Amino acid sequence: MKLTIELDREDDGRWIAEVLDLPGVLAYGQTREEAVARVQALAFRVLADRLEHGESEPELMSVSFLAA
Known about the structure:
The chain has 68 residues and is α+β, with helices and mostly antiparallel strands. Strands 3-2-1-4 form a 4-stranded mixed sheet, with helices on one face. It has a single domain (2-67), classed as Double Stranded RNA Binding Domain. The radius of gyration is 13 Å and the shape is elongated. It has one helix at residues 32-52; strands at 2-9, 15-19, 26-29, 64-67. The chain has 1 helix and 4 strands; from the N terminus they run βββαβ.
């Protein structure tokens, strides 16, 4: 599974990162790196929740991120 992270800088200087393939998965950070780290952690939580509730196949998953 390859997840794309879209990054943008807000007018106030904060960075926002969003995982396009997971609706609602977005996070802010004071730096680009902080925003990416936070959104990756949130994406893993969402994927784990889906697995736990049977919303995804429990097969071995490979996850990678691409910052766009």
